[in-house]
Specification:
489 residues; mainly beta; elongated
């Protein structure tokens, strides 16, 4: 047979006016509550105010039959203290079905793991029928990482559940919180909160001057039973420099790993990003983006923080582009030549928008360690005026934020690194590395070859030779300053 649960005990330490005696009564009850009373037979037998009863005039079941002042309440399960409070004034109704309390201070409910959940309230009532204590007026609750002011709250003795049905303000996890509902289970420390707006510092490590104040909004925030993971649904977070939106955000409170899934959207002044999953290892200052990662890198003259509709990019293979490109015109005017020069210039990398597509991006963002590894056949495309463009493909890309270089690599036995332009340039390499510094034309490559389509004015002509309308040459595009290096890895 299952061992019966120990019956809670309630101690009432009662002191009153000087004409009263100090009386201590121990009452065995069948449940737990702020009043801790299901049956009051014990207090009837030990009624400390029997001689005052005639002056109370209690006739109706709801009338107060017993009054007490300066009451200390302690509730036990076996020998374990599970709750206590101090009540300035207490009244027991004629039918013994409820207890009214006033000036409640030093209230504590203890979770099963021993964590205290403190509270105060101006008044409250315990119901024997519903086994619920309702705190009203000026209620405040404090616990681990929280300090909340509420209009009222309920404590369900049977479920061991604390519930706030109305507006909530206060502090939570080091920030300020504004929410509508709150429910906390004392048996397993699970909870649910929301809709909620939280404002505070997400990263509490490092230089305080560099910390950002975040505003996080969510439809709900919860921690399921037995879990170390906080779950936020329909969440949006911003620090004024970036905006992050996701269908679901999970944070492991022990490992401090944050995972966003669903339609994850990231907006900043410099770039917007869309993917299926983001995992942030905050202790390592490392982030992993996965699942059809699409990124828009904005031109410098359009850098501003705003939420826009993001659409996933469709991967394009080089053969699709090569087969659909029209032939180069036989003659070009000055305007067209100037547009062509923009395609091959290395001075305009941030002048025009660029899009990036990859399966996975792993990024280290700690100061002095900034780098990114981009995998899953990454490709990038930049749109220029006049229908011009340039596009690259690679097996893997490595960005070094400290050295400011971008390296495109092929697979061990392949040559996936490829550079194409709307001018019918088409070059391949084992690897290709370019500087991303402003006004730095440095680049290098291994086994670079392909077709570079020069302008007819750039091809030296022999005396009497006519203009050539097409053809290719084995040469790097102009503007790429530096030697083409052929070396082994």
């Amino acid at each position: 047979m299952k061992k019966p649960r120990p019956q809670p005990k309630l101690d009432l330490a009662i002191s009153g006016k000087p004409t009263w005696k100090v009386i201590v009564a121990t009452i065995t009850v069948t449940g737990l509550g702020i009043g801790g009373v299901y049956y009051l037979h014990g207090v009837l037998k030990l009624d400390p105010m029997a001689r005052y009863r005639a002056n109370l005039g209690a006739k109706k079941p709801g009338d107060i039959a017993i009054k007490m002042e300066d009451v200390a309440i302690r509730t036990f399960e076996g020998k374990r203290l599970v709750g206590k409070a101090h009540v300035g004034r207490l009244g027991i109704t004629q039918d013994r079905r409820s207890i009214e309390t006033f000036a409640i201070t030093n209230g504590v409910y203890y979770a099963d793991n021993g964590d205290p959940f403190n509270f105060i309230a101006d008044e409250g009532v315990w119901s024997q029928d519903t086994k619920i204590f309702e705190a009203r007026k000026g209620a405040k609750m404090t616990g681990k990482d929280l300090e909340l002011s509420v209009d009222a709250f309920k404590y369900d003795q049977v479920l061991r559940k604390i519930e706030v049905p109305g507006d909530i303000t206060g502090k939570l996890s080091g920030g300020t919180v504004d929410a509508k509902t709150f429910a906390y289970m004392l048996r397993d420390n699970s909870y649910e909160l929301g809709p909620v707006t939280w404002v505070g510092q997400v990263d509490t490590t490092g230089d305080a001057k560099k910390r950002s104040k975040w505003t996080i909004k969510a439809k709900s925030v919860s921690r399921p039973s037995g879990s170390e993971v906080e779950v936020s649904l329909n969440a949006e977070a911003t620090d004024g420099d970036v905006i992050l939106k996701a269908d679901k955000v999970e944070r492991n409170v022990k490992t401090d790993v944050v995972t966003a899934t669903g339609k994850v959207q990231y907006f900043s002044k410099e770039a917007n990003l869309l993917c299926e999953k983001v995992t942030v290892f905050r202790k390592e200052k490392r982030a992993v983006l996965e699942g059809n990662v699409s990124m828009l890198i904005k031109p410098e003259d359009q850098e501003r923080l705003e939420v826009t509709e993001l659409q996933p990019l469709r991967p394009v293979v080089p053969d699709e582009i090569a087969s659909s490109r029209p032939d180069a015109p036989t003659t070009k005017n000055d305007e067209e030549k100037q547009l062509d020069e923009e395609v091959r210039s290395t001075q305009n990398r941030r002048k025009y928008p660029a899009t990036l597509l990859a399966a996975r991006i792993e990024y280290w963002y700690a100061d002095g360690q900034r780098k990114a590894i981009i995998t899953g056949s990454p490709q990038a495309r930049q749109e220029l005026p006049g229908g011009r463009w340039r596009q690259i493909w690679a097996y893997k890309a490595i960005y070094d934020g400290e050295k400011e270089t971008l390296r495109l690599e092929s697979s061990p036995d392949g040559r996936e690194t490829r550079i194409m332009t709307s001018l019918q340039d088409d070059m391949r390499a084992k690897w290709f590395e370019v500087s991303t510094k402003e006004n730095d034309d440095a680049w290098s490559a291994e086994d670079l070859d392909g077709v570079f389509m020069p302008d007819e004015d750039e091809i030296p002509k022999k005396p009497g030779e006519k203009s050539n309308s097409g053809g290719g040459v084995q040469a790097p595009p102009p503007g790429m300053q530096g030697e083409i290096r052929r070396r082994s890895n």
